Amino acid sequence: MGERVARLALYQPDARSAARLRSAVGGAHDLTICESWNDLERALAARGVEGCLLDADHPSSSAAADRIRVLRSRHRCLALVGFTDRGTALAFYRLGATGLEAFVSVDDGAITTRAIVDEALAAARGRKVRTWLDGVLPDPGPELIGWSVANAGPATDVDQLADAVRQSPRTLRHKLRVEDLGTPSTILLWGRLLLAGWRLAHDGRGIEETAFALGYSAANSLRRALRSHAGLTVLRVSQPDGVERLVEALATRLGAASRRLPIDLEVSR
Q1: Is the pLDDT of residue 123 over 90?
Q2: How do strand 30-34 and strand 49-55 relate by DSSP bridges?
Q3: Does 258 reside within a domain?
Q4: Is position 268 within any domain?
């Protein structure tokens, strides 16, 4: 079985910048090269593409902004990363307002670029998980788990989770207890497990790299967490439908087994 990687579309008319992006990201993800905005839209209409890297300044910043807004409206759960030579806080704010997940600047090296793309994919995957769980888990479960997927990592804590829904940690614990959704730590745990599943099954990441990136002290710690909380092995989670199986396990563990999950949990749409 060949290695699976996330599929990304790349639109960057400048040959030198395109070569830099391919070098930084191509080893970690499968890139579809697009020669125009229309090519990019056609690529994104196909199943399997999770995100795109695009020139946020071509043919002009305003024209690109209009295109990006259209892409975001059509592809809510897509990771959009803009490449730009702008460098001011106001410029980045305006880029964010168009619907971009993140920005890669001309000064970012390969390691930074890959990290930015990973963060954008995590944010998009968090939105997808929230969409799947809407109507399956009571509020605020879908929002909290989506946020936990988008922000999964060693530095994420309960205070940040509570801030995300504008509640105190104490109020959040009470709300989760009332809705039978476990504890804030449970929510954060599932965010890590779901993002781990995505990286194992669709990014071609190994268990050691995935575990350390998400704050586990060793690969075996992630293995135990998957078995204990989801009833799944790393091998099972690493299969193409591993993320879907994790979502089903999450719904079961949080008491939503009798409520209908989306029929088609298509991870790359």
Answers
A1: yes
A2: unpaired
A3: no
A4: no
Other residues' Cβ atoms within 10 Å of the Cβ of residue 263: 6
Residue 126 lies in a domain: no
Supply φ then ψ for residue 94, to 5 degrees. Answer: -65, -35
Can you say how many angstroms the Cα of residue 100 is from the centroid of all Cα atoms in its chain? Answer: 13
Task: Tell me how far apart the alpha carbons of residues 223 and 46 are, in angstroms, rounded to a whole number.
Answer: 34
Question: Do 152 and 202 have their domain in common?
Answer: yes
The count of domains in the chain is 2
Q: Which amino acid is at 17?
A: S
Give 269's pLDDT tier (boundaries 50, 70, 90): very low
Helices 110-133 and 184-202, axial angle in degrees (round to 10):
120
Burial class (CB in 10 A: 0-12, 13-18, 19+), 105: middle
Tell me 36's DSSP state.
S
Is residue 188 included in any domain, yes or no? yes
Give φ, ψ of 176 to 5 degrees: -65, -35
Are residues 106 and 38 both part of a single domain?
A: yes
Residue 173 CA to residue 239 CA, distance in Å, equals 34
pLDDT one-digit tens code per residue, 145-164? 999 999 999 999 999 999 99
The long-range contacts involving 105-110, CB below 8 angstroms and separated by at least 24 positions, are 106/17, 109/24, 110/20, 110/23, 110/24
- Residues 197-232 have pLDDT tens digits of 999 998 888 999 999 999 999 999 999 999 999 999
